[in-house]
Amino acid sequence: MKPFATLFSAVFLAACAQSAMAAAPAAWPSKPVRILVGFPGGSTPDMAARTLAEPLSRALGQPVVIENKPGASGNIAADQVAKATDDHTLGVVINGNLTSAKLLYPKLPYDPVKDFTLISLLATAPLVLVAPANEPGGADFFTAARQGGAQWNYGSVGNGSVAHLGMELLKSRVPGLTPVHVPFAGNPQVVTAMLGGQIQMALIPPGVAMPHVRAGKLKAIGLAGGRSSLVPEVPPLADAGVSKVNLEVWTALIGPANLSKAAQARLAQEVPRIIRDADTRQKLFNQGWQAVGTSPDGLKSRVKDEAAILGGIIQSRGIKLE
């Protein structure tokens, strides 16, 4: 009986091992990872995504490919992330995609609360109010802007973006300021329009604005917030007599709601470590970003707090979009 018992035990153990292997979750990632960015190449979210991609690829042992899907203030790309089913599609988004979009668009094709896995707040940046180089600075700029009335235009990266809402907040703080909103696909297009004379003002992250300011092609009027080590030469808007305009733009990494637990765990481990690395922090700083690298809970907290702030702007200004 012993040979039979030994054979039976071997077969039983082999079957158990196979069952355990079948039950074990597949290693992630098993193929290249796509990161969708809802803005053009050269935009600040794009630069942050590409800064993350190389070290993340090394950490994961798979290529990390950036795909730009610009349009609708990043909501087109966000919707594609929400509907992804391959477990290897992520997205780099900005504030509005997770906070104000649902408040602004009744027909938004995704639910920012239910349709995403929040991974990490990557980086933040103040917004710089910029104007053509030939405009006056400080309080005199707002005098000129009032005189321009509705003949002046302001640009943003799209309807419902933080830059759009920030400008509406600014208008509420400066009586008589009435420039008309002109939306664009991304900040590089906003800058091009300003250099071409199509718009006269815009709130832009420093990574895009300051190279043109330092080259003398644009003028920095002030920061929407306090002083920042990113742009120490730019004073707060409060110095020009405009108070209570405090807004940042930020970028975050997300995945679809059905992202596997294995992917979530791996990304929650790797992404904050990469973002907080000294080399990555410096690269982001050079682009005009302040590195953060939160846990998923940290990003959830930021989304909740900012949804309340942006919701207040939307309500007070009566902003409605189709």
Brief descriptors of the model:
322 residues, alpha/beta, D-Maltodextrin-Binding Protein, domain 2, six-stranded mixed beta sheet, five-stranded mixed beta sheet, 19% strand
Describe this structure in words.
- This protein folds into 2 domains: 33-125 and 248-317, Bordetella uptake gene, domain 1 (D-Maltodextrin-Binding Protein, domain 2), CATH 3.40.190.150; 128-240, Periplasmic binding protein-like II (D-Maltodextrin-Binding Protein, domain 2).
- It is built from 12 helices and 11 strands.
- The protein has helices at 2-23, 44-60, 75-82, 95-98, 101-104, 138-148, 162-173, 187-195, 206-214, 261-276, 278-286, 296-317; strands at 33-37, 64-68, 89-94, 116-126, 128-132, 153-156, 180-183, 201-204, 218-223, 248-256, 290-291.
- It has a 6-stranded mixed beta sheet, with helices on both faces.
- Strand 6 (153-156), helix 7 (162-173) and strand 7 form a beta-alpha-beta unit.
- Helix 2 packs across helix 10 (261-276) and helix 7 (162-173) crosses helix 12.
